[in-house]
């Protein structure tokens, strides 16, 4: 999906000079892509998942500018408008933009997850955040028990953290 390479480049421009944010979304994108492919998602759902994974944290920048903070709820609040603007400018279809903006606006909300794209985005973000945030073994086990739903994704978590 060549569009993703263009979107990745746009997100790199968006976060120019912030390699941590760039590295983060690329890692989330790669985990989401891999999990979706392993789960054999329908092509359109995979496309939406990958697009959402690239822009999932786009709300950080406007949240920091407006509030001096970028907590999860602020990212969810500010992200959809920024994602919509970028995706429209790049020519994404309205139905893709709608679902991606929904996912961006909910990716830190872990109850009422509706759809495999949403579930996989949350799990991919968790895999990366658990490592990047250097959380305790207890926090990893808690996420393992409460977040990761399929055996394949639980196995990824075990391989990364429970050596």
TrEMBL record:
Gene3D superfamilies: Hypothetical protein af1432. Residues 21-114 form the HD domain. Signal peptide: none annotated. InterPro entries: HD/PDEase_dom (IPR003607), HD_domain (IPR006674). This is HD domain-containing protein. It comes from Jutongia huaianensis. The lineage of its organism: Bacteria, Bacillati, Bacillota, Clostridia, Lachnospirales.
């Amino acid at each position: 999906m060549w569009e993703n390479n263009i979107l990745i480049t746009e997100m790199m421009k968006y976060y120019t000079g912030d390699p941590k944010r760039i590295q983060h979304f690329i890692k989330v994108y790669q985990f989401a892509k891999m999990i979706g492919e392993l789960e054999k998602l329908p092509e359109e759902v995979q496309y939406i998942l990958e697009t959402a994974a690239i822009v999932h944290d786009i709300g950080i920048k406007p949240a920091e500018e407006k509030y001096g903070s970028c907590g999860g709820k602020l990212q969810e609040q500010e992200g959809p408008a920024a994602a919509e603007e970028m995706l429209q400018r790049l020519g994404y279809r309205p139905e893709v933009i709608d679902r991606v903006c929904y996912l961006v606006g909910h990716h830190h909300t872990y109850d009422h997850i509706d759809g495999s794209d949403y579930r996989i985005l949350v799990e991919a973000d968790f895999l990366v955040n658990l490592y990047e945030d250097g959380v305790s073994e207890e926090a990893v086990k808690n996420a393992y028990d409460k977040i990761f739903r399929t055996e394949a994704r639980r196995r990824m978590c075990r391989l990364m953290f429970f050596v």
